[in-house]
Amino acid sequence: MKISKSSIESAIINEYYLSNPYLTVKINKSNISGIFGSDNGKYIESISIDQDFESAVYHPNMIVFMGQTEVEYVLSHEKPALAILLKGSKFKIKVKVSFQKDLRVPVIEKVLHDEEEYRVFQENKKINFIGKGKQVSMSFENTKFKMIRKEDYFLFEISPQGKAWVVISFGNESNFSKDIYRSNLDYINYLEEKFDSKEKILNSLFVFSLHTALSNYKHGIEKNFSALFAGPNYSLPPRTYYRDSFWTSKALLPFEPLIVKNQILSLLDGISERGTAPSGIIFASESEVKRYEEFIKLDPRIAEFQKNPRDWWSDHWDSPFFFVILVYDYLRWSGDREILTKDILQKIRIILDRFEKDNWLFVKDEDTKDWSDNVVRSGFVTYDLALYAGALNSASKIFDLIDGDLAKKYMKGHKIVKKFLNERMWKKDHFIDYINEKTKKAEEHINIDTAITLLYDIADSEEVFINALKKYLFTKNNNEQKFGNWGIMSVWPFYKYKEDLKSKSAFPYRYHNGSDWPYWDGVIAKILLSRSDPEWRYALLKSWEYSLSNKWYLPVEYYSPPFGRGGLLQAWSATPVWAIISGGFGIEPDLNGNFSYSTPPWGKSNLKFKLHGKDINLD
Q: pLDDT tens, 126-135?
């Protein structure tokens, strides 16, 4: 395997994705196993080429397959168009078009299929597949071809005349290979120029992480929206999450603050009049909303999951707090105070005032409604309370611009929650996970999510806590876990109340019960870099090194040696970008755009970013 800043050359891997605002292209080995629109379902079931390849070079949104012949897949950065380059004498390409849109009904996990029929027209070197709502065209450049229609697919016999291109356009706009290729090259150049160091692995991590964040920014095709998806597997139904988009935004704020502004406006719609928010928001058409409403009436379990037909899992404890902190982060990086509309300020107050009458504390119900959504945690939960404290702290600084009394009120709330966490939830060298005084259950292990206390001026004994995190969760330091040196575990020891573990988390080392989550690695790396802790390198790079060794060339959701990985191109796993900028360079702007920076521990580097609308270049 050879890596450069924006490429990985190796033997052919099993799975890869190309993704832009309109399309997601799934690659299995050298074939395409699905092309999907952002919110209108599947366009193409498969595209296979009758060639064997020896190796490939993987770039953001481009793959080059090499052997006796050469094939490239190139996705445009800004248009719904894919170009396939063919270098060789003859090719056979098998294409299966499928205009299918599915509707997933939660809880009962029923999937309703809508198949759209299409007609086929040929105009010289262009084939059009036209359905009622969808359209795909295939244009052939610099080649002769013959189309043969089989039972449920089309076979194209292609004889290139030099470099041949097959351009696939989605929608009624025609595209050309030179424009698609240039668009992709411009995109890769954009990624490469943002950061540079003398370390290949660090440069690679940055480029592929930033790409992961950007490639999950989606524009609606059927419905008008612009929002961050969690990854390629989160379009059934198309939806955006509060927590996933919060961590993804950490990587985007220094480069594309407008994306984050659009995300805030999308999330605003999900905040209820009670100050609650779902895990995510569905971008459903009016007809789909009506179908959801029908299922909600039929099954009380669905009604609980979707209290609003546009909710994806109603009433998550952490979601509204992420919203408040995201508004503050956006203000710090953009300087755009127009975001502070009456509606947003009112929602922030409703979110935070919800627990004022209870002395700024709350008891979580016996549910799985936060990031650890396969584990029942209840009572006082450190993670959720720490996020609330972070939201109170952030809101205090926002309202310091507007209303000094409110600012003081929320800072008072922050201090009360901070005091409670340090006095009630601290044990020896770490914050415990949760304690429920009613059920007498207490999970006192160390959980990576309690590191939130280190981000928002909560932990009194920071150094002691950081040492505990490194001692127990860094697998290179933990000789009690069985698989050697493979990353940072999410908990240690494992959860003890087996009756409270659901699905994947029921198994030790799996999911919330001990897997490495690269997005949390980015959080830990940021914390260590900000404190000049020499263990920053392990936190920042280990999961990427492990992924590359396993031929996972896009940031993954989670992984562990006995259970493998979660999804690829997972948006929030872009947090290493934030760690490099805010941890390594020490850039944490205040609301007025003031910041300081230092040379990062890996040595002299270049960084280009935006702050309050100005381009800044640090050499």
A: 999 999 999 9
